[in-house]
Amino acid sequence: MKNLLIFRSLAFLLLGLGIVTIFGCNKLAQPDAKKATQEVSFTIKPGELLSGLKSTNVLPCFEVQADYVKVQVDDSLYKIDVFYINNIPYTNTIKLTVGVHTVKEFTLWSDNNTPTNFTDDVLLAATPHSGSTYAGFVVTPINIPFTIDEFKKLEFPIEVVCYEPDHYNDFGFTYFQINEIVVREETFFGDICIKNINDYVGSLYAQQSQGLQLDMPAIFKIEAYRNGVLTGSFNNEAWKGEGQPLKVTYGDNLHQLDAFEFKLYILVRKGTGFSYVYFHSWLFNDDQVIPQGSDGVVDFALGNCVPNADLIIPPWMNLPATCTYQITGSYAPGAHGGYVDATLTGIPSGYEIANSTVASWCADHETTINAGQTYGMDVYSSMYPTLLPAFAQSAKWPKINWILNHLDWYPGYLWDDVQGAIWLYDTPSWNGQAHGGVRALASMQWAQTMYNDAQLYGSNYKVPSGGWACIIFIPTGTLPNAPNPTIQTMFIRIDP
Predict the structure, then answer these.
(1) 100 FRET partner, CA 20 to 30 A, in 69, 115, 339, 350?
(2) Whole-angstrom Cα distance, residue 351 to residue 471?
(3) Helix, strand, coil % over all residues of the chain, rounded to 5
């Protein structure tokens, strides 16, 4: 169920009065050596959270009105009656001395309609202690120091948690107006699809009960953010992702708009090691539910081995962040079957591309690149086009991937059929005239057909396991918002 816990925010106003003792009209007034105990007024100050209420639902633990609170201030325990105005609970007053005090416990109670019988009273809510399980759901867990000054008022925000009584170890606090915070829960399970079992030898996945497989339960973590602030991090390492889903709990203020972001990090191979890599964010507000199946579990797959998952993330490609790129040898065509031959260097071991010379193509026909010149390049996967600089983000990448995975549809195709079809996706589009060693479009057998077919079938194309995907090279240091390329956008293809 979604509503496991209910938090209630509280604000209190304290008025501290100091005492001066007078020894008759003919004597000087002298302060008492001891501070007198004076009345402290706990009244409710309407807070900002009271505006724009999102829900009028009565939460489960507040279906019964509170009758009193128990408050431990310093070493003294106080029982304070609660009354309601416009359905908002208030407390009566207690007496405290001027000075510094510490709230050590606060609990909110119902007398169960038997005010003279305390044995059946019901604990409704309390404030978590610092370091307790639910401390992260309140702004300020106790113990909480505060100061009573002479003739000054102190406003203090408090939150309490509503839950089953046997979970109230180490909660507490004083004086209050009550705003609800529901602690909700989402449940997650994931799969990771890999192409090479040997890549994950020595990882936590190898410790799963079935050992390494091409489709394994994902080991992952989720960071929960509320209004941009990290409220918790959850992971399934303890059970290696097997046998149970990961439950994520989070607090939702019912009296304000809360924007949530759940960031998903999956344990994958990176270089020669293994680390958590960010893949996806779920964004939602308030009591919205993350899309999930009928089982109530948000399931995802990294790769395309679980086609019915609630979220399918493109396959992970273990790529270096940068490398050097140089056009070498012949071009139009290159010796390796592409438009040019590209020599890649500066790549550490363990990645899916290595120091080598491979076939390469260009994604735009108007910008130039110099053969023989070495370029420092940032390396991108075409399956994550939103990570590219602005000028390279394009709906063409799934279509180009579709072409590279369906070349068997075009018997006898030539290298410039492929390059010509790709240039037709350029902006502005290639005019079909012979250009840069590529023949005129009218003289090619397959280029126009490749383009047309990709238009029909490639818009939402997902590269399958064992398929081909483009690896894109952009000059290192290119800003994310760069509107234009400084050299031709070059790419190669690999099996992801």
Answers:
(1) 69
(2) 13
(3) 15, 40, 45
Cα 348 from Cα 274, distance rounded (Å): 15
d(CA 98, CA 160): 26
Distance CA 326, CA 340 (A): 10
Q: Which of 178, 108, 111, 105 is nearest to 142 (CA)?
A: 105
Model confidence at 448: pLDDT above 80 = yes
CA distance 487 to 360: 14
Supply 233's token pair. 């991090």
Dist. CA 419–CA 407, nearest whole Å = 12
Amino acid, single-letter form, for residue 465: S
The band of 371, judged by pLDDT with boundaries at 50, 70 and 90, is: very high
Rounded Cα–Cα distance for residues 138 and 128 (Å): 8
pTM as predicted: 0.65
Tell me the pairing of strands 99-110 and 144-148: antiparallel
Q: Which residue has the higher pLDDT, 115 or 435?
A: 435
**pLDDT of residue 304 exceeding 50:** yes
Say yes or no to pLDDT of 427 above 90: no
- pLDDT score of 416: 95
* pLDDT for 157: 55
Domain segments of the chain: what residues? Answer: 5-177, 185-313, 322-494
3-state secondary structure of 96: strand
Separation in Å, CA 228 to CA 135, 251, 264, 335: 18, 13, 15, 52
Measured distance CA(489)–CA(342) in Å, rounded: 13
Confidence check: pLDDT of 282 > 60: yes
Pairing assessment for the beta strands 298-302 and 179-193 based on DSSP bridges: parallel
Angle made by CA atoms 36, 37, 40, in degrees to the nearest 5: 130
